[in-house]
Amino acid sequence: MPSIFLFAQDKQTVTMEQVWLGYFNQTRFSNKWGLWFDAHMRTKDDFFSKYSTAATRLGLTYFINDDTRLTAGYAFFNFFPADNHKEISQPEHRSWQQLQWQTRYRRISTVQRLRIEERYRRKIASDSTLGDGYNFNWRARYSLLLQVPLGKKEPQTNSLSFVVNDEVMVNFGRQIVYNYFDQNRFFAGFNYQVSPNASLQFGYMNLFQQLSPGDQYRMIHTARVFFFQNIDLRTK
Which end of the chain is more exposed for a tag (fewer CB within 10 A), N or C? Predict the structure, then answer.
């Protein structure tokens, strides 16, 4: 069950425990074009009690070069019944655009990502009824991932790397009043190289989020498992 810690007299933080599962695919068709796809399932609390969110994301990628790419696309999120919609799921539609670039050093590699999202969340009329129309806001996200091989100089099949990742998200738009800061996600864990084109990333993520009233916060301790697959269809 969630636990609540009071900060001062008018701030409160709810703590939760969740599991996040994700699949990421980046397929390259040519020197300049490719496809982005990812899908997610997240639990609600106590790690394995019910579901909180399901999501899919699709995008078209333009490769500036091998290490830098632009992507734009559409995402659909489904938020399973929660406190203010106990008997129905709340859908959300997003258009999104991002710039991603990778930098390689002697033993360390970094991946940075700047993403802009346009979020359309269906309004809620009651615990069992969706409202007419959507709430809208923009969100900007910046992510920095650092990967260090354990042992070998570069990740190879059956090798293990240490991964640390931090992503900060900021809301903006007319409907945002109290929570311009949305959330911060800090992850630390390991990357197991399953094959030259696939890897399994697993570890702990701490998510700290400010909710829309402004004086309510959410702290989520998360077991995160992501599978990454890169497919290159270019003629060798």
Answer: C
Instruction: Kindly state the tokens that stand for 141.
Output: 């996200």
> CB pairs under 8 A, 24+ apart, for 161-168?
161/190, 161/191, 161/193, 162/189, 162/190, 162/191, 163/187, 163/188, 163/189, 163/190, 163/191, 163/201, 163/203, 164/188, 167/113, 167/141, 167/142, 167/143, 168/141, 168/142
List the one residue out of 222, 220, 223 whose CA is nearest residue 3. Answer: 220
pLDDT, tens only, 31-79: 999 999 999 999 998 888 789 999 999 999 999 999 999 999 999 999 9
Q: How far apart are CA 62 and CA 100, in angstroms?
A: 11
Domain count, the chain: 1
Range of the domain at 182: 3-230
Looking up residue 131, the CATH number of its domain turns out to be 2.40.160
